[in-house]
Design brief:
The protein folds into 2 domains: 13-47 and 147-460, Metal-dependent hydrolases (TIM Barrel), CATH 3.20.20; 48-145, Orthogonal Bundle (uronate isomerase, domain 2, chain A). The protein contains 20 helices and 9 strands. The chain has helices at residues 13-26, 40-45, 52-57, 61-69, 87-96, 105-118, 129-140, 147-153, 170-177, 191-194, 201-212, 219-235, 255-266, 272-293, 309-315, 334-340, 357-366, 384-398, 416-436, 442-460; strands at residues 31-33, 156-160, 184-185, 240-243, 296-299, 303-304, 323-324, 348-350, 372-374. Helix 11 (201-212) packs across helix 12 and helix 14 (272-293) packs parallel to helix 16. The longest helix is centred in the middle third of the chain and has 22 residues, at 272-293. It is globular, with a radius of gyration of 22 Å.
Length: 463
């Protein structure tokens, strides 16, 4: 076997025994995946997945950024290559450098995928590269490995994608109209039409207006177009919005002030501070809309996106060059919280890439304001140690019930079971420590294991 059955459990024998029992009680629970970046098109068309390189290597920025850091170019991995493709060669490069992932969560996710999904029992290496490529390629052509079959095999109860307000959502509509019972829902990601620094922003808001039948020449019409887009998403099962702003800044301008600011932004006259103020006001406007339509609000700030300018200009976004930045929440969120923080009907889920804020800012905020919940360790921190740091730093102040379980936040569909399994193992280990230290009874730990693995996500995301 590639994977040891006791992987990630505590080293202490007594604690490990309790962790095993807690994990066994939740390992077979359905997967709730309320936030991710898979494609609805896969499940609408239900065509076979492409070759192993296109499926496993090229779209996964966790994989690509590590290889790039060691001098492997994106051309070597055939990213951006339109002709004369040789996916076996790209896979061979990945296999030859697989040792780079030792000690990373990517290695755990991949090994578990290779073993549990494809039945591979020997480690990936230069010597086994062709056997891996041929085995995976052959299986991907069989009915059991079509997207819908894997969705059912993985016991996914619900899967959320991430979608622009400009998206037609035709694939979500096609899924709804098919006879397949899988639940795939859109998530409203408005960055392209609320962030003046987003590529093509001015054109995007024009298209937003056209799709909603609004003349985007006034602040009121602009907000009306956004509400219309949210309603369209809701008809296809959307329960959440997602906001990837550079910071967590919020604002609470008067209607007249906001209208003047919008005019400057729309005319291209806004400077950097005014563009940041506009983003800040839009988070508060999105919270206001969530109070009306009950969409859960997710805020994912604190990433210096596309840090490698050369890669961005040549290949576009999401090439693995996003870097965490320090993030303020206490003062930045104050305007939004002053306006809506005490609203029980509103749910705002906060994520961070700045772990220093866990115990100093995020846990105290979520431990007080009725509208706030803490999202799980995100991106660079969805790792065994990252998950454990999160639990140790927030639980004493925010408790378990002001968190929202786990979400995988992945483009790599095949890794979803492995990512949820990792979270269930780490939570079992943390709960086991509390049992052994007599801070929790075993029955309480068993209940919490179930809630962290399954029901807290369903409740928080209103699924």
């Amino acid at each position: 076997m590639l994977m040891h059955p006791d992987r990630l459990f505590p080293c202490d024998p007594k604690t490990r025994e309790v962790a095993r029992a807690l994990y066994e009680s939740v390992r077979g629970l359905p997967i709730v995946s309320p936030h991710g970046h898979t494609k609805a098109e896969w499940f609408a068309r239900n065509d076979p997945f492409p070759d192993p390189a296109q499926l496993i290597v090229q779209p996964d920025h966790y994989v690509c950024r590590m290889l790039y850091s060691r001098g492997i170019t994106l051309e070597d991995l055939e990213i951006g290559v339109q002709s004369k493709r040789n996916p076996r060669k790209a896979w061979q490069i990945f296999a030859e450098h697989y040792y780079l992932f030792r000690g990373t969560p990517t290695r755990i996710w991949l090994d578990q995928t290779f073993e549990n999904v494809f039945g591979l029992k020997v480690p990936l290496s230069k010597q086994t590269s062709d056997a891996y490529f041929d085995t995976i390629s052959e299986k991907l052509q069989s009915p059991e490995f079509l997207p819908r079959a894997l969705f059912d095999r993985f016991q996914i109860e619900v899967l959320a994608t991430t979608d622009s307000p400009l998206d037609s959502l035709e694939h979500h509509q096609a899924i709804r109209e098919s006879n397949w019972k899988g639940s795939v829902r859109p998530t409203f990601r408005p960055d392209s039409v609320v962030d003046p620094d987003h590529c093509g922003f001015l054109k995007n808001i024009e298209v937003l207006g056209e799709k909603s039948g609004e003349d985007i020449s006034s602040w009121k019409a602009y907000l009306s177009a956004l509400r219309s887009a949210r309603r369209r998403f809701k008809t296809l099962g959307c329960t959440a919005t997602d906001h990837g702003h550079p910071t967590s800044a919020t604002a609470d301008l008067s209607e007249a002030e906001a209208a003047l600011l919008f005019d400057k932004v729309r005319d291209g006259r806004a400077d950097a501070s005014q563009r940041e103020l506009f983003r800040a006001q839009m988070l508060t406007e999105m919270a206001r809309m969530s109070l009306d339509d009950e969409l859960v609000m997710q805020i994912h700030p604190g990433s210096a996106r596309n840090h490698n300018r050369v890669l961005y200009e040549r290949y576009g976004p999401d090439m693995g060059a996003d870097i965490p930045t320090p993030t303020n929440y206490v003062e930045a969120l104050r305007p939004l919280l002053n306006r809506f923080g005490n609203e029980k009907k509103l749910t705002v889920i906060l994520f961070t890439l700045d772990e220093s804020t866990y115990s100093r800012e995020l846990a105290p905020l979520a431990g007080h304001y009725p509208c706030l919940r803490l999202g799980p360790p995100w991106w660079f921190h969805d790792s065994p140690e990252g998950m454990m740091r999160f639990r140790r730093r927030v639980t004493e102040t925010a408790g378990f019930y002001n968190t929202v379980g786990f979400n995988d936040d992945t483009r790599a569909f095949l890794s979803i079971p492995a990512r949820h399994d990792m979270a269930r193992r780490m939570d079992a280990g943390y709960l086991a420590e509390l049992v052994v230290k007599h801070e929790l009874r075993e029955d309480e730990a068993a209940q919490l294991a179930n809630e962290l693995a399954y029901s807290l996500a369903k409740e928080a995301y209103r699924l």
